[in-house]
Amino acid sequence: MNALNRSTCRRLQNLPQIPSVWEGDRRLLSSDIATRGESGGRMQGECVLWVDGSEGIVRAMDVVPPDAGHEAVVRALLQAMEYPHSPAPPARPQKIVVCDREIQFFLRGVLQDLDIVVDYVSELPLIDEIFQGLQGISRTRPPQIPPGLVEPVLKAAQEIWDDAPWELLDEEKVIAVEVNYGDVGTLYVSILGMLGMEFGLLMYRSLESLKTFRQRVLAAGESPEDLEGAFLAQDCLYVTFDQNDAESPLAGEEEEALLAGFSDRNGVYPTFGNLHPLEGMRPVLYEEEAETVLLALTALHRFFNAHLERLSIEEFPKITSRYRIPDPKQPDEKLSIKVSSLPNIADELAEMSAEAAEFNNEMPDFSLPMLRNDLIPEDAFYSLGAMPWDIFNALQSTVKFHQKAESDFPKTADGFPVILIQTSRPKATTLIEEIQAAGGLKAICFNPGEDPFSNDRYDLGVLQTQNGDLHLFGEFVDDDPVHVQARKKWDQRCKKTKGYCGLVVAKGFKGASRGNPKLGDMLALFEARSISSSELGLGSLQLIPFPN
């Protein structure tokens, strides 16, 4: 039997004891009651509740995993005594009632030194009333997409997912969609997903909102508070494709079935919603918003189908097309919608990013991590390439150390992109142990570098460990045609694996096995993220010679 330690008991005994009866229980939160926070994260599990039945007030409420033990009930009770949610002062009750025999016996053992009576009752009327209220709230919440629009909106989202514009365009390549529907004139679309992190479209209601968001993000740097403030200040509609979600807490039966089918086909879960400075994030589209999104997605799909091959990060010409799209309210009527690429805006946003990067490089920042050169043995062989999927699958089960990716990823590339580090067995073992001691491998990146004396430019291979340290694993001449081709293939494969890549550490770096290790030579596989140099945030690095 768990028991409170003596110091905790003495502290609780010093609280005034009031002539009150408290009700306590834990109830399962169904998916209908589960809520999303502002960041989109889901809060689901069991709700532990303690209420003062005499005063009719909630003293503590917590959400815990369904497999949490009775200790979770005790923790919430201690909070109810010492730090109540309500304005009521800290206190001990004279009596506690619960409707679960196991919880009753558990609490009797834990609270035996606090002079609190713990009784069993068959019903808890106040707690029943609170949860009935929660159920009532959940029943009045609207679905994510209005009935009647679910199927056409998801069909349009499927077409955008198949188009995959993020494989060619980054978020600076803005496309204007003149819907002129309801209160919306033009939507300015920014594309998410080139880094393989999050896929989707942000459809800003004004160009000013888009630019302001970009400015605030660039000024925020690494500040979580400033980034969150910038995120919540956006004025846009959105559709994103989440690789982690399995169900929508707001979906009805028909909607949930269609969403589940989308997820089964594509391995991602579409979410729709609205962002506004006064509303925050709302994972719901009301009817006019859903109709606007449907028109925009349909027009964008036609535009991508006709012109996407002509667009890229390097080439983003001015292209304008008009499409006649069925009116969501009157399908027999057609609306004329104009779609245009905006190269001038793309240049302006790119210049904004460049100025922010230049400013950050000019400002001394002693918080930046140092790029270390002591992890990889000096005589090690290194290369970047791809591992056939059958070898990759076999290696996962045969390698001595395997760091698995945080989530599943597609295997549509011609192989799994990997960095190979090959050295002697003792040095390879030491390398693996040092990465493990740093918490594992977090990311792999290529960062620009230069020698100011020779004017040579390099593509620096960087490993980032979970503790934040950055380690140089290789220097590649920037204009070497072999490396240029290898980098191009690396980037293409990482896009297809949604940003996942790997590090293979192998032994046997001499003779015929150099650069071509056998399966038995491979000692470790670290699966990690591939990140861009801008995401790493180091800027262009310069060689600084130290005096002898």
What does this structure look like?
The protein is an alpha/beta fold and 548 residues long. The protein has 3 domains: 6-140, Prp8 RNase H domain, palm region (Nucleotidyltransferase, domain 5, 2-Layer Sandwich), CATH 3.30.420; 150-359, no CATH class; 371-542, no CATH class. The protein is 33% helix and 30% strand. It is built from 14 helices and 25 strands. A hairpin with a 5-residue loop joins strand 2 and strand 3 (42-43). The N and C termini lie far apart (67 Å).
Give me a quick take on this structure.
This protein has 548 residues and is α/β, with parallel strands linked by helices.
What labels would you give this structure?
Nucleotidyltransferase, domain 5; 3 domains; eight-stranded antiparallel beta sheet; 33% helix
